[in-house]
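Continuing the batch. This is chain 6 of the set; chains 1 through 5 are on the previous pages. Same settings as before, nothing changed between runs. Recording input and output for traceability.
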Amino acid sequence: MKLVGLALVTACSVSTAMGAFLQPALAQDAGSATGRSGQTEATLAPGSPILAELNSGVDSKKAKVGDTIIAHTSETLKSADDRTIMPRGTKIEGHITQASVRGKGAEESALGIQFDKAILKDGGEISLNVIIQALAAPVSFSAPGDLGTPPTLGTTQTSPMSGASGPRSTGPPSPQSPQATAPPDASGAPSRDFDAKSRGVIGLRGMTLNAEPANNRPASVVVSNGKSVHLEGGTRLLLVVQAQGSEPSGQ
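Output for chain 6:
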């Protein structure tokens, strides 16, 4: 009996010692897991403006519901304390929510677009809950600062930046010649004047822009009185972040 008791005491002592040894290791591993799970996707504050451009053209005559649509940021998005959220050139991915042409009882053509996420070059993603607040024709010539100062608002994320350069002039500029060849809008203002305060459609005649939710998320619809809605590659977009669960603001 004494031997059995001694064996039990010894076993309990070893078990206690092992428990004391393993306890910090388990706690450290749990802490590491918490740290990893803490690296969640960044979210953007409602009202954050994102200036972007379409990577390629899209036409409601050829597009189908569910087709992927790709854009990229044309200006760096920064937080109020000057931290980079989305560098210029960040990929923005979305899809077509509706596509129709004029005719067969339809007086207008329409193209619905819903953007889903921003994909950073370091592999991170930022879920998007945005509408297109403004739409503008591409600029054939762009110089630094054309789109104004980078919009500020949002949260944080970083990745390398990419940029693009415009064509060079082939001759001496005329004092009377404009610095940009982008078409004017209905008011006569050059469509290159496009920033975080822009609204509606600029430089694209016969088109209007509406906010129409799709699948319980914000989305936008471009409507045209032409045979189809055709947006060229380089078409400029002002995306504005909407609050989760809120009705999208009007255009």
